Amino acid sequence: MKYGQETGVKRLRAWRELHPEAFGENIKEIRRFLGPQVRMMAVVKANAYGHGDQITAAILQEQYGITDFAVASLEEGIRLRERGINGRILILGYTPPEALGEALDYELMQTLADRDYAREAASRAPGLMAHLKINTGMNRLGVNVGETKGILEILGDDRLKIRGIFSHLSMADGRTPQEQAFTREQTERFVELLGILEKLGVCPVDRHLQSSYGILQGLIPGCNLVRPGIFLYGVRSSLDGQGGFTGTPALSIKAKVAMVRQVASGEPISYGNGFHALKPMEVAVLTIGYGDGIPRSLTGGCVLLHGRRAPVVGRICMDQMLVDVSNIPGIRPGDTAVLLGQDGEEEIRAEEMAGWAGTITNELLCRLGDRLFVVTGEQKKAEDTELSQQGLQKEWHKNTA
Q1: Count of CA atoms in the C-beta half-sphere (13 A) of 241
Q2: CA 395 to the chain's CA centroid
Q3: Contact indicator for 155, 137 with CB cutoff of 8 Å
């Protein structure tokens, strides 16, 4: 990943704009459900849900004091260490046993998914720090919650440094009585297991169950850690999800206008024969497309230009997309379009954009491509000020020549 800090915003055709202050607002909102003392393990997998993992983790560590992070893979954990991220980093997913020595070298914590994997980890990488995953009903990774003998065997292996134990709620965002009942059942199973392990004196120090939507339950007895993911970025998975969290979006997506063209009534627009102008139209070509992670299925959505909504027309291309600006006067090449974020009084949130694309925000954000450099709002503001000053100087020289 390359960052705008290294390239300069003014040379970019399209970019992601990160708003560090939003993380602070979202942390405050998350704490409303949990109280001020609970530790947060910031989930920064999948390039921090498309926000840029290294820069996001650095902001969380340096500005907000976060010391626990979760990633999906060994490679993601190494990237954070190479960026200077300290503290605890948990690999939530599978690492091939042959590579566990690297996890040990980089002081990463590995998830133990079952007994056989734990035995191999202990043999190949003695001294490895780990968290034990418990399956409470999702039936993905984890030792089944009722297999107490196997759990005790893993916890008793002194070749491993098991720092935590956790599970994952599969229906925490559900709104039906059945989904909510299953979430309570998963929670009760995990809390009961913690009680058994505590009585035996073998329960790891860190215990965690809740990712973003699970946080809405409030702090669960026996747990001291939560794993905010999508909420940390100020976004809900969809507009249909369980309420209670609003969030302050931490990311905008912006692109330049390459050209504006007139299209006659009846003329096709973009690939194929799927869209024809129903009347004479003015169309702006934007410098962003599905090669940057914008869903090809987004047709039917809109972008913001000059603080107004411009409908997407025709199919999304790999490197460009087209929008109808017939009712927005004064659009020029070089203008900035906002695909995600605010422009004046208007805003497009990720929940709305994901709905247009027929997906959830998690997927929408994670698929954003590396061609979209990450810059901070402060950097963009500074460069806009610099460009404005240069323009004033040019105007002054022209008038005094």
Answers
A1: 25
A2: 43
A3: no
Nearest to 204 by CA among 124, 88, 320: 88
Query: What is the CB neighbour count within 10 angstroms for residue 271?
Result: 13
- 20 and 57 Cβ atoms separated by less than 8 Å: no
For the segment 353-388, what is each residue's pLDDT rounded down to a tens digit?
999 999 999 999 999 999 999 998 666 555 554 544
Strands 206-208 and 161-166: parallel
Q: Which one-letter amino acid corresponds to residue 300?
A: G
Q: Summarize pLDDT for 256-309 with one digit per residue, the tens.
A: 999 999 999 999 999 999 999 999 999 999 999 999 999 999 988 999 999 999
Which pLDDT belongs to residue 22? 98
189 and 250 in contact (C-beta within 8 Å)?
no
Active-site annotation, residues: 45, 271
Tally Cβ neighbours within 10 Å of residue 125.
22
The Cα–Cα gap between 67 and 105 comes to 19
Q: pTM, whole model, 2 decimals?
A: 0.91
Amino acid at 241: G
Between strands 346-348 and 336-343, the pairing is antiparallel
| pLDDT tens string 136-186 | 999 999 999 999 999 999 999 999 999 999 999 999 999 999 999 999 999
pLDDT given at position 244: 87
Instruction: Round to whole Å and give the CA distance between 181 and 172.
Output: 10
What is the per-residue pLDDT across 313-332, written as a single tens digit (0 to 9) for each?
A: 999 999 999 999 999 999 99
The pLDDT, as a whole number, for residue 135 is 98
Q: Sign (positive/negative) of CA torsion 86, 90, 95, 99?
A: positive
CB 136 within 8 A of CB 189: yes
Pairing status of strand 308-313 against strand 302-305: antiparallel
- 230/235 Cα distance (integer angstroms): 6
The set of long-range contacts for 146-153, using a CB threshold of 8 Å and a minimum separation of 24, is 148/193, 148/196, 150/115, 151/193, 151/197, 152/200, 152/202, 153/115
Three-class secondary structure assignment of 183-207: HHHHHHHHHHHHHHHHHHCCCCCEE
> CA 335 to CA 331: how far, in whole Å?
7
